[in-house]
Amino acid sequence: MKMQDKCSFCGRFRNEVDLLIAGTDGFICDQCATQAFEIVKEEMKSKSTLDLNNIDVKKPMEIKAFLDQYVVGQDEAKKHIAVAVYNHYKRLTQKGQDDDVEIEKSNIIMVGRTGTGKTLLARTIAKMLHVPFTIVDATVLTEAGYVGEDIESILTRLLQAADYDVEAAEKGIVFIDELDKIARKGDNPSITRDVSGEGVQQGLLKLLEGSVVNVPPQGGRKHPEQKMIPVNTKNILFICGGAFDGIERKIALRLNTKVVGFNASQNNAMIDRDNFLQYIAPQDLKAFGLIPEIIGRLPILTYLEPLDRATLRNILTEPKNAIIRQYIKLFELDGIALKFDEEVYEYIVDKAVEFKLGARGLRSICEAIMTDLMYEVPSGTQKSITVTKAYAEKRLSHLNAQQLRA
Question: What pTM was computed for the model?
Answer without folding.
Answer: 0.74
